[in-house]
Design brief:
By secondary structure, the chain is mainly β. The protein has one domain: YaeB-like (Elongation Factor Tu (Ef-tu), domain 3). Helix content is 2%, strand content 29%. It contains one helix and eight strands. The protein has one helix spanning 130-133, and strands at 10-13, 33-38, 54-60, 70-71, 80-81, 94-105, 108-112, 120-127. The strands form two sheets. A six-stranded antiparallel beta barrel has the order 1-2-7-6-3-8. Strand 4 (70-71) and strand 5 (80-81) form a beta hairpin. The model has no long low-confidence stretch (mean pLDDT 88).
Length: 161
């Protein structure tokens, strides 16, 4: 089996020093500001990014140690398969968030709608393009259909350590 290695391109800073209390998705974190500090060697890679209003962050869930194939998600009382959830207790502790890009100054990216733990290692940035990322309006959201209305007020209770 091939060994896979990732390297951090920077760190994500947010007001959340503890896992408990973090909004569980960017939609639950509207107006919450954060900052990405890129390592200097990656600054050339953000050229032209300032033309995008939203970016996709791919990051390492560095404080998550637990992994499970069945979890009880924050918005549900039933155990679900890990791949049908956004739980951090994944086989590979990789997170993904779509945030608003407010501005860029040197190696600092100011972001909004942050649902990420302070000091999280950033693995990659991609521009969010609705015509690519939301290309099909004929979608289903499975068990989550009846949970959407609760999303805005939901916060992490720290259960996925």
């Amino acid at each position: 089996m091939m060994k896979i290695k990732f390297k951090s391109i920077g760190e994500i800073y947010s007001p959340y020093d503890e896992k408990a209390g973090i909004p569980i998705q960017p939609v639950s974190a509207l107006g919450i500001h954060g900052c990405i500090v890129l390592k200097d060697k990656f600054i050339k890679g953000i050229k032209d990014l300032d033309g995008f209003s939203h970016i996709i962050l791919i990051y390492y869930l560095h404080k998550t140690k637990k992994s499970s194939l069945r979890v009880k998600p924050f918005l549900d009382t039933n155990k679900r398969g890990i791949f049908s959830t956004r739980s951090p207790a994944r086989p590979n502790h990789i997170g993904l968030s779509v945030v608003r890009l407010i501005g860029i100054q040197d190696n600092h990216l100011i972001i909004e709608n942050v649902d990420i733990l302070n000091g999280t290692p950033l693995l990659d940035i991609k521009p969010f393009i609705p015509e690519i990322d939301c290309y099909d309006s004929d979608y289903k959201i499975g068990w989550f259909t009846s949970k959407v209305e609760k999303l805005n007020e939901m916060r992490s209770d720290g259960r996925f350590k």
